[in-house]
Specification:
- A nine-stranded parallel beta sheet has the order 5-4-3-2-1-9-8-7-6.
- The longest helix has 16 residues.
- The protein is an alpha/beta fold.
- Strand 4, helix 7 and strand 5 form a beta-alpha-beta unit.
- The chain is globular and about 55 Å long.
- The protein contains twelve helices and nine strands.
Length: 329
Amino acid sequence: MEALAAAHRALLDERRQLESAELAALARLPAQATGALADLAHEVRLAWCGDTVEVEGILSAKTGGCPADCHFCSQSARFSTPVQPIPMLDPVEVALAARETAKLGASEFCLVYAVRGPDARLMERILALVPAVRREGLQVAISAGILSRAQAERFAAGGVHRYNHNLETARSFFPEIVTSHSWEERWQTCEYVKAAGMELCCGVLLGMGESDAQRLELLEQLRELAPCEVPINFLNPRPGTPLADRPLVPAREALRWIALFRLGLPGTILRYAGGREVTLGELQEVGMRSGVNALIIGNYLTTLGRPPQEDLAMLERLSMPIGALSRAI
């Protein structure tokens, strides 16, 4: 277990990030080492980030009808799925959802739009909602697809705190999952978000058929991009999508990769996101002790989460206080 001892020295004694070769050595450890990896990841999380957990609510403000062909997504207009397009929620509905989310102790509220990217009209509608959400005491996050530099700057000037744009998977695997736009377009949007002064939330989706080498590749690409937050999603196969028949990621494998992402991104907000309930089941508390320090509470975009009270009770059992983990604006 020299790789574990070396990682402990680097991250906790020398207080430095791991080199690529050190991360790769950890990824080669046998399955029996998962518990030790998780223990180290939890130590690193506490040392680099503290014990606070950030809670976020998300709302699908425009559902379905997306022109992109992301093979995992039931909101794509290109696939025959049970999800039907729903008109955009009005400001009253958004404000009510934000208010209910704030009552749960959340500090961040993300409005998600199933679009390739926002046009001028959608930009105006989103920016008009920002003050209403902030009045509920929440920071505003937006997910609305691919941005231009000017759009990123406008969102930042309009009070958007954080912008979500996921890489999803490694550059080498991306063409197997999406053909309607490129990985490079996603990367460029992420760069625009950072340059505009917003916090970047850039997530991953594990379990789409990628190899361990490609997961490491993705982790290296995230290390280069340096987002503020990385949500970790696990594929929850959706009926009608090209990935509908993919098996779930085994729970112990999921825990291993949560730990590896923490060890590779020691100071980053690492958020429990979609698929954790079906993938980890009763092991979700173990995941919280494997490097996670944030979670999405309540339902997701087209799938149900577990009742928020269960997550709040979990955090209480784990003695993990709820709070914000980034700068306020």
